[in-house]
Amino acid sequence: MHISLNQSQLGKLFLALTLISLATTACSQQSQELSEREKDIDKQKEVQMKVVERTTDELKESVERQKEQNLQAIEVNKKQLDIEKANLDAQSKEVKESTSFVKKNLDKQADESKKIVDRNAQVAKDGLKDIVRANSN
Questions:
Q1: Least confident of 47-61, 67-81, 83-97, 121-135
Q2: Tens of pLDDT, residues 4-43
Q3: Measured by CB atoms within 10 angstroms of the end CB, which terminus of the chain is less buried, N or C?
Q4: What is the pTM of this model?
Q5: DSSP class per residue in the chain
Q6: How far apart are CA 92 and CA 83, in angstroms?
Q7: Domains of the chain, residue spans
């Protein structure tokens, strides 16, 4: 089978083949550009992920340092409060002891005063009895 084409048909065929070739080249070039853009996006994604990870790690370290500082400050305050509590406990003990001493002293003074009152009452009664006897005689 032999196909004969005239010059006009050959020109059209050549033009069609050229257009197909150009279209194929353009598609290939677009595909390559798309691939490069996707690679760029992946690189940017990777960089941004690393930034996020680094920032997160730095923030975690900062939070951990702050926690340690806060715990140390709390421990210092706790020790100070323990010292103050010990001082207050000692003052409380001293108040109780001095109050007990004063109460015992007051009890002794009351006992002495009662003895004196008893003696004075007895002396007064004896004096009264002496007066009554002297008047009776």
A1: 121-135
A2: 657 777 677 777 777 777 667 766 777 788 888 899 999 9
A3: N
A4: 0.49
A5: ------HHHHHHHHHHHHHHHHHHHHHHHHHHHHHHHHHHHHHHHHHHHHHHHHHHHHHHHHHHHHHHHHHHHHHHHHHHHHHHHHHHHHHHHHHHHHHHHHHHHHHHHHHHHHHHHHHHHHHHHHHHHHHHHHHH-
A6: 14
A7: 21-102
